Amino acid sequence: MKAAVYGGIGKIEIKDIEKPKIEQGTVLIKVKTCAICGGDLRTFRFGHKAIKPPIVLGHEIAGEIVEVASDVKKYSVGQRVIVAPAIGCGSCSYCLSGWQNMCYHRTTIAHHYNGGFEEYMLVPAAAIKAGNINYIPDEVTYLEASLAEPLACVLNAQEVIDVKLGNTVAVIGAGPIGCMHAEVARAKGAGKVFIINRSEKRLESTKKFGFDEYICSGKTDAVKEVMNLTDGLGANVVIVTAGSAEAEKMGINMASKMGKVCFFAGLPKDQPTVELDSNLLHYRQITVYGTFSSAPRHNALALEMIRSGKVSARDILTHVVTLDKIVDGMKLVKNRDALRVSVTPCIDEIGDEFKKLPGVKVVK
User: Which keywords appear in this protein's UniProt record, sorted alphabetically (predicted)?
Assistant: First the structure.
């Protein structure tokens, strides 16, 4: 079978590798599509300390079950599914309370097991046991379903920060994650939603979502603009999806009294610190949250939000590339010429889906 094998920094090759054999406790899926995450791009460009090549990347996976081990009773051939990548141990306090993403013994698809940039992927027994497979609703295409994993990470963060009815929400970063956060905040009843980004080009590409205000921090003082738009009060909730110290500092400065700030993105490993005015936190009673990854329950909720249209996966997914064009897909993400890119090993099999997503551009 064909697979895009990551061989180290800057190296991804399409290779013929052996199709995975079913093992006790496992499920084999035919990958229909797997979206490119910013983490995939960072690993491709800079490597990752937890990822030892050769390995197949890709953890935003949607596919069809084609084989099931004899001891697995819950799943059957033909079912349309997504696979949550973070696999908890199932016995620690975090797993038992539904926060498998915090498990100290967590393993991850595309880190410890081959991921979805291949024709067939073996879902490991640990993932089956942990309940990491979720069924795709009939109304949701494979292409849309490939966005459930990043949306699940957004929903994890949204559960923590708990946007309230009428809140003013400022989202820093107008990438796919920022747009998802803004859509979820709107669905939860936010009074106003602002999107902030340094690039005016990127902001323009997100105006189709119809958020309340678009602020170009590359041309104006975003903190002052937010204060002006809120009569000097600031934003009740600030979600920082851009992985930069400057963005995190900006987020603190634009938060209201008793505001909540979410650091959704990590900083570069060689520059992991940020200077903050702690008096702002003290006198405004600002709460800062960090959030990371998601649990299987967030993936199930993500599919429902896509099905209901509360999150417009059709607007977020802008490009689809065939497996052999995966490096071109990485370039689209790197150059910010796409909002979200999905990779398919079987474009002919999902051809009908493009009728439901007429705005998606195909690279093959």
Answer: Metal-binding, Oxidoreductase, Zinc
Asked whether the beta carbons of 301 and 148 are under 8 A apart, the reply is: no
Strands (E), the chain: 2-8, 11-16, 27-35, 55-56, 60-68, 80-83, 86-87, 107-108, 120-123, 133-135, 168-172, 192-197, 213-216, 235-240, 255-263, 287-290, 319-322, 341-344, 361-363
Q: How many residues does the chain have?
A: 364
Q: Using 50, 70 and 90 to split pLDDT, how confident is the model at 48?
A: very high
CA nearest 195: which of 187, 144, 176?
A: 176
The whole-angstrom separation of Cα 361 and Cα 364 is: 10
Q: How far is CA 175 from the centre of its chain?
A: 10
The amino acid at residue 164 is K
At residue 221, φ and ψ (nearest 5 deg) are -80, 105
Q: What is the pLDDT of residues 288-333, one digit of tens each?
A: 999 999 999 999 999 999 999 999 999 999 999 999 999 999 999 9
The string of pLDDT tens digits covering residues 176-227 is 999 999 999 999 999 999 999 999 999 999 999 999 999 999 999 999 999 9
Q: Fold identical between 2-146+317-363 and 161-290?
A: no
Residue 244 pLDDT: 96
Superfamily of domain 161-290 in CATH is NAD(P)-binding Rossmann-like Domain (3.40.50.720)
Q: Is the pLDDT of residue 347 over 90?
A: yes
Residue whose structure tokens are 């980004």: 197
Domain ranges in the chain are 2-146+317-363, 161-290
The DSSP line for 57-122 is: ---EEEEEEEEE-TT--S--TT-EEEE-SEE--SSSHHHHTT-GGG-TT-EEBTTTB--SSBSEEE
Mean model confidence pLDDT for the chain: 97
What is the model's pLDDT at position 270? Answer: 87
* Residue recorded with tokens 């069924």: 135
How many Cα atoms within 13 Å fall on the side-chain side of residue 323? 27
Topology given in CATH for the domain delimited by 2-146+317-363 = Quinone Oxidoreductase; Chain A, domain 1 (3.90.180)
